[in-house]
Records
---
Amino acid sequence: MLHNKILNWLLLFTVAAGIFTTIGCKKDNAGAAPVIKQIRAISPSPNDSVLTAALPGQIVVIQGAHLASTAQIIFNGFAASINNALFSDDNLVVTVPRIAWDSIPDGKLNTVEVITAMGKVTYTFTIIAPQPSITSVSNEMALAGATIVINGNGFYGVSKIIFPGGIAVTDNFTVTGITQITVTVPSGITEGGPLQVVGQYGTGTSVLLFNDFVTGMFTTFDDGNYSWGAYEITNDPVLFPGSIGKYAHIAVPDGIGAGDFAWYDGKRSMNTNGVTWVLPAAMNDPVSSYALKFEMSLKMPWGGASFYVIKDYSWTYLARFEPWKGRDAAVSTDGWITVTIPLTQFKTKAGSLDGTGDPASSLSELLGSGSGSLNFMLLNSDAIAAPPFDGAFDNFRVVKIQ
């Protein structure tokens, strides 16, 4: 009997010791400093391999131990947004934050820090600085001496802008933040092509073509490739300064009445001969890859009426050009600017409004064979009269935008 009691006491002691040992281990784990073993992409296989580098904005998974109580994750000295619902003891799902590359603290370059209540761990990991990227230029056909604005991103430590023909500008430009460069167009540009921005972390090359009067061009008005239209063709450089050769002048000094669709009356339209919108070999490209571009200069603010843009006088797909809508004030240009209308903005009719429905699913659906006239017509579909309009247009073309 005594023997059985001793066995029972020994068994109870063993179980209790095991329980206290387990609790002790858990407390030790909970009180341990964080550990980072590796960082991987969040994307499914085959992209879930270990990463050696990542870009700002990329979602990554930090893997290690003792991570559940993470309070801060810091990349290159810049804190990431924290979402504890995406954390576990061995995984942290986090988005690499935006990095101010010109103000990284000393010793923080290419580091990831994880901070918990029990300590901090620092892990060496490359954050890739974005190369400069160019998204648009205020005037793609600007003359030498004109001031243009290059829009984009990643403009860190810009040392020069290279224009077509390898003409480099190393001064006479100002960088605003990391998204805008104001530069004076140099002399001597005799060909068209992309722009390049050379920065601290690489060189960005534009998809857009500067000073290119050939690619995708419908009409420059100097080539005579325009049909009838109620508009004036002039080459007066005083009327619209900064113009290049001939351009179309559309003026409606008395304004346009409510519901006035008579685009063919007065000087309110521009129409080309048959032109190639997209080459046959490219008709399988996405609609989003192309845009209609042209240059515009307004002599007075534009605050009413719309340009309807169609192909071959067919209103099935129509783009509404009305940049004044949704603004508190009328639109002004302060000289010539480049206008971009993506072909995805050519839409069907929805209800009673043309050009507000669905875009075409393919280039062939939108353009047929890919060729036809361009029709650019000023009218007023609104229930109130539109004020006077006075503007000039040039260099209508369809080009790739991506």
Note: The mean pLDDT is 90.
---
Amino acid sequence: MTSTTTGLCVFACVFGAAALAMLVRNALPQHHLSADTKDLVKLSMGLVATMAALVLGLLVASAKGSYDTQKDEMVRMAGKVAFLDRMLAHYGPEAAEARAGLHRALEVAMTRIWPESKLPAEQLGPTAADGEAVFDLLHNLAPQTEAQRSRKEQALALAADVGQMRWLLFEQAGSSISTPLLVTVVLWLALIFFSFGLFAPSNSTAVATLLVAALSVSGAIFLILELDQPFSGLIRISSQPMLNALGQLGR
């Protein structure tokens, strides 16, 4: 289920709960709507609202933390790739094949992560699809001088770091949001809106207020789910750092 669909479902649940309460109110005996009952409902729902606010804050912090972590990792990986290419450039012309392999691997990685940045078909051949081939090309380098040996070791260390970060991003692709926790928050919000509708006056201003409030809380859930999917949706990590690194390769 996409974040947009989930957001719409949350809106339907919370606003539907308020609308249902307005209908139920007409069927309740008058003593169920007394001032004492209203005060008790307000106190009870105040407690539920506090818990919902705390859990919503935790969900936002978790999603934002995961988003920022992956964004920082992507920026650092772009910097390491660009530096690896410069290291190979200083190694000498013998590293030209490894530099070309690094260029192809980065192009393929970008196409997989950001499908909208499609590359020409000839740049997506079988040799480009295997990013680990860069390791083999680096290992095959035969340094002739101490400087070349030092640069080969540094290049291998950088390539290992890039590969590790690539797999780390792959493992982090799953959701960081607990589904049972999210469902619990939505149920709490539905209860809160049910209490709102139970004592709300039957006029357009009250309905419009409940509508705006329902849109706000469902929008918050939508943003949480969008942040939890950093490489898809509306709030996605920019490909600009990788594009900048790609523009520097081979120079």
Note: Confidence is low (pLDDT under 50) at residues 119-129.
